[in-house]
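User: Can you help me understand a structure? I only have the sequence.
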Amino acid sequence: MRGSAILILCCVTVLAEPRVALLIPDLRCGGLERLSLDLASCWLQAGVQVDLLLCQVQGELLTSIPSGARVIGLRATRLRQLVSPLHRYLTEEPPDLLWAHLWPLTSIAVIPWLLAGRPCPLWLAEHTTLTWSARYELQLPTWLVSLVLRLTYPWATGLTAVSSGVAEDLVGLGAPSSRLSVVPNPAAVGRSAQRLFALESRSLWSMQPTHKILSVGNLKEQKNHALLLEALSLVSCDLPVELVILGDGPCRAALEQRIHHLGLQGQVSMPGFVSDPSPWYRSADLFVLSSSWEGFGNVLVEAMECGLPVVSTDCPSGPAEILGDGRFGTLVEPGNPLALAKAIQQALTAPVDREALVRRSQDFACSTIAERYLKLFGISHHA
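Assistant: Let's start by predicting it. Here is the structure, written out as tokens:
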């Protein structure tokens, strides 16, 4: 009888484990996708079940899904196709919380959630400065984005933004500030700050010896790698540099043409997508972010966690918040190649307190941020 009671208690404990559903487009390589998997891993370790709801089951990071996470493909190649499968999921097996990411996916998620009778709390998350993204990537007028936000966001249980700048932008578009919380991205995941030995470094970088500059990010308009190339062409010839840009995307051909036009063929390489950029961080001398806009800037934290000094455009929004308004890295005016070139030259010759950079990165540790989210959502766990 006592054994049966123990068995029943164990079953109740298992059944009582909370379940969080993350709704994202897919698992192509990007900051949102990486942090979703990192959060899922932390939550699973904390005794929280995780459903990864993917509009399409595709992307380079499919092989990085943490053990225990359940992947549910919604087979929605277009956003309007999302309503029916998401409604079915919420009706048949509602989670304890649904967390949808990235507009307009966030606004669309409100519809099946309402049709299902609001079976669980719904939180909506934004990871970029939406005004800029809508204008330059989605090519939508601001008034239309604002209208959709005002019609959908007030229904949600809560809203999250990855930086204060993103939050201010959302409020300006009509999101209710009373339901909006700012929680930074969990970009520090325990990378080593130990520098690579020279022999290991030579396998990554083609030019020896030289100053090694690294940039990581999708090759798209937002990241403005063309600005970085322009700045590199202005760096003094007395300071030989090699630039490696990790990532891939629609701007590759244009960037390759720009490299040729500026005569940088021997100084710049673009190896493409790299699943683990840590060795590059640990062997570079400087990290540069040249974006026109951001939501947060995960790569800045990744570089700092490896003890790598950073130079970044002071773009909206995120870099200034991560770098403490310049205390932990150099901020320069966006779109100014000469200012970026000067900052690169100064950073390559300045002393570096690598330990201070590593300590700052831990403010964005995955375990810490994962716990903050659970508290914000009101989800208790057993681990």
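Now, to help you interpret it: Residues 246 and 276 are 10 Å apart (CA to CA). The first strand starts at residue 19 and ends at 24. Let me know which part you'd like to focus on.
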